[in-house]
Amino acid sequence: RMFFLESALLVLLLRKPGYGYSLIDGLAEFGFQTERLDASVIYRALRDLESAELVVDSWDNNSLGPPRRVYTITATGKAVLAEWVESLRQSRKEIEVLEAAYEEARKQG
Question: What's the mean per-residue pLDDT of the chain?
Fold first, then answer.
């Protein structure tokens, strides 16, 4: 599940830089139940992505409240995301073949 979370975060950051809570809201699009999602999980994933140099952070001092840490995808992050998406596409094809074979075998048996 962490791989899917990190992939979804990178897609959100590919669209535009974001901070933790804005990213949490965006995860609903990918099927995450955001009201039940612990923010610490998101921040840990963002730190892991940053350690892997897939995202960088900076401080936004222009917010109305306290400064916020804003995350931006890096060029490496974009390249890795493209690889991950291609891997997911390949997995989807393999799953579709398996499902079709299963349905055919079910009809025969």
Answer: 94
pTM of the model: 0.86
For the chain, counts of helices (H) and of strands (E): 4, 3
Which tokens belong to 60?
Answer: 């936004």
CA dist list (Å): 3 to 7, 10, 83, 87, 102: 6, 11, 13, 12, 27
Residue type at 69 in one-letter notation = R
Q: H helices within 27-74, ranges in order?
A: 39-51
Q: Are strands 18-19 and 55-60 parallel, antiparallel or unpaired?
A: unpaired
User: Is residue 23 within 8 Å of residue 59, measured between CB atoms?
Assistant: no
